[in-house]
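seq:
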Amino acid sequence: MGGRLLSVNVARAQTLEIGGRPVASAIGKRPVDGPVAVRPLGLEGDEQADLSVHGGLAKAVYAYPHEHYPFWQTVRAQARVAGWDDAPPFGLLGENLTIEGLLESQAWVGDVLRFADCELAVSEPRFPCFKFGAAMGFAQAVKLMQANAWCGFYLAVRTPGTLRAGEAFELVPGPREVGITELFRARSAGRAA
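struct:
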């Protein structure tokens, strides 16, 4: 099994106004051309504003399945949020890698995405926060991500190298003991309790 990397997305942290207060965030990722260096702590040109929830060795890179984009486009239109009239721009959900062919329900902690010049290991699901809701433009976005478990997943850099949009990856199964969807639902239920 494998998939394809549709886009590599990066952003520098900047100050956004969310709920009437300034907040540092790098959620507004944008696609970059050419090969991008992949290092143990993430992609060249990318930052994480809150290292308590993003970044570090286990959460160096965030991948999100493109298959969920039509859903988000539809609910944003229903919420009357402007900006996605045609195809949504890659990276807008805060992901570094917009991928195709691997959903959360098919990913397990320890699985490896083997690209031509680097390897990334699935480490854990992403948990949405208020910054995600603000980036999506409507308050229910966080609840919708939680309800569907369409969270994407973090990747640890197993073998540094480079990534380029359009390249394929092979999924190398890990121990297959903890699934991303199950881990997301279990931790979300624990946070709600």
